[in-house]
Request: fold
Amino acid sequence: MIENIKQLLQNAELQQQIKEAINLAEAIKLITTVGAQKGYSFTQESVAQAVGKLMLEEHALTESDLLMVAGGLMPDCKCGLVYCTE
Reply:
């Protein structure tokens, strides 16, 4: 299903409509409607879950990001401090 949604999102017109949507619920409704026009039978709930997964994939944290958030050392830091001042 995620691949089907990715395929739908290749459409520039749909992308523009999503950008103009007033909220996420409206964007999900658009995707569901366009999907139905293309022969897919998405529910709004399944589209919401898929969109959430796509958003997480797009914004995945790197190991370096995770170390900094968890209080680890910055990858290139040689000072040995948790909060690098260099």
